[in-house]
TrEMBL record:
InterPro entries, A to Z: NAP-like_sf (IPR037231), NAP_family (IPR002164)
Name of the protein described by the UniProt record: Nucleosome assembly protein 1-like 4a
PANTHER family from the UniProt entry: TESTIS-SPECIFIC Y-ENCODED PROTEIN
Pfam families (UniProt xref): NAP
Any single biological process term in GO: nucleosome assembly
Organism encoding this protein: Nothobranchius furzeri (Turquoise killifish)
Length: 324
């Protein structure tokens, strides 16, 4: 596939060179029309962004109710808790599995009396630990902090402002930092590049801004203190010095690598930037709107099915190319 793709542009270029001059002239006219289409498409995506902002306001009361149930601020009524279970799947469970589950539930209830349970404990932490993209960033020392995460919200830029969206991570008071909300702004571009208008495929994230975390003294998990021994060259005296060095943590998410203004970045930086953009998009499009399904694992089953379908299509495409 790679070989074919790399040869394809040169094949097209050669065929264009073989066209009569008068036909080439008309092809140039078609390209001008195509560029105008790209500009119209950019306007379309601007309106889509506005529509997203409008509907985000309609979703928000439901997300607020979700937050209140998770944190235990409100207790849902019996009517609100009614849900149609898939009885066929339940009946298919083996009796011994059911029994084992009942025993485990009983143990949990003994360990944590039901009357002491409030809301849905560790809701967001469970999602972080279950989703590969997020668990890859998660360190053991992050978990105690994320137990205090009570909500994640997405806010869209206002009309007339440059296109962007903001992720807001809302925390209850905790012993790690003073911030009630940690934010990450993703700046977007939705216009064709004048030098390459045909590459336009819709809005793309071009940069992100994090926030300053006001850590309590000695609680900053994004750094660690190390001790090093230094020996004086002349006197031979040995002394121990301590210094802080960067530490792996999810909370580095709020101190992102910045896109280079001139576009010149090393391979590692480019990968880190692309990963950051992918994670921001995943929070916006998947995690926040479908949080309960990631908590139960149902959304991940859907994601896996989608990946399998993509793989099957890819395999078919490769075989077709081979036959070509």
């Amino acid at each position: 596939r790679f070989v074919f793709d790399s040869l394809f542009p040169s094949i097209i270029e050669n065929s264009n060179n073989m066209l009569p001059k008068v036909v080439k002239r008309r092809v140039h006219a078609l390209k001008r029309l195509q560029a105008q289409c790209a500009n119209i498409e950019a306007k379309f995506y601007e309106e889509v962004h506005e529509l997203e902002r409008k509907y985000a306001a309609l979703y928000q009361p439901l997300f607020d109710k979700r937050r209140d149930i998770i944190t235990g601020t409100v207790e849902p009524t019996d009517a609100e808790c009614e849900w149609q279970s898939d009885m066929d799947e339940e009946e298919e469970l083996a009796a011994e599995v059911k029994e084992k589950a009942s025993i485990e539930d009983a143990k949990k209830e003994e360990a944590t009396p039901e009357e002491d349970q409030k809301g849905i404990p560790e809701f967001w932490l469970t999602i972080f630990k279950s989703v590969d993209m997020l668990s890859d960033m998660l360190q053991e020392h992050d978990e105690a902090i994320l137990k205090h995460l009570k909500d994640i919200q997405v806010k869209f830029s206002e009309p007339g402002q440059p296109m962007s969206f903001t992720l807001e991570f809302h925390f209850e008071p905790n012993g790690y930092f003073n911030n009630a909300v940690l934010t990450k702004v993703y700046k977007m571009k939705s216009e064709p590049d004048p030098s390459d208008p045909f590459s336009f495929e819709g809005p793309e994230i071009i940069d992100s801004d994090g926030c300053q975390i006001d850590w309590h003294k000695g609680k900053d998990v994004t750094v660690k203190t190390i001790k090093k021994k230094q020996k004086h060259k002349g006197r031979g005296v040995v002394r121990t010095v301590t210094k802080q060095v960067p530490n792996d943590s999810f909370f580095n998410f709020f101190n992102p690598i910045k896109a280079s203004p001139d576009g010149e970045m090393d391979e590692d930086s480019e990968f880190s930037l692309a990963t950051d953009f992918e994670i921001g998009h995943f929070f916006r499009e998947r995690i926040v709107p479908r949080a309960v399904l990631y908590f139960t694992g149902e959304a991940m089953e859907d994601d896996e099915s989608f990946e399998e379908e993509e793989l099957e299509e890819g395999d078919e495409e490769v075989s077709n190319l081979c036959s070509f």
